[in-house]
């Protein structure tokens, strides 16, 4: 039996047409005893915000403001993660330290010059997060002195894949309290810059 197919009608795109974006609906309020997943930005439900390593710091700031985020994944043309860059990186010692070492002006600094490279990123495992509470995540972020934490799992091919992001800003908003962490210098260069 032969099937008969019919063409669908076309129409013009309206001038004010947008597009669907994935959106995650996190609970408005949580407590420290709530499941940690209730405060994790799940990258299977929300598109990750990324930027290339050759972007300027101005481009990073614009992307962060437009996306209302404070962390961008730095990716190559194959969407492999090269590192991360945060608003703290932009406003902290890294740009000044880079200019001190290399010279130039702020507009000459690229993401690759001040990002945290992949090999220095510490991550949490989804299997641990699945049984954690919000309070556990807050204590983890405080202990390591970070405002963000990446959560990883394994993809269908067994490769590590970033599944989610914890942010003190998001957690604080859902808890209804500000969460203060102190960034901890991780290298001797960062320690020297902080002490100088």
TrEMBL record:
Pfam families: CBS. It comes from Thiohalomonas denitrificans. This is CBS domain-containing protein. The keyword Transmembrane does not apply. The lineage of its organism: Bacteria, Pseudomonadati, Pseudomonadota, Gammaproteobacteria, Thiohalomonadales. InterPro entries: CBS_dom, CBS_dom_sf. Keywords: CBS domain. Residues 40-101 form the CBS domain.
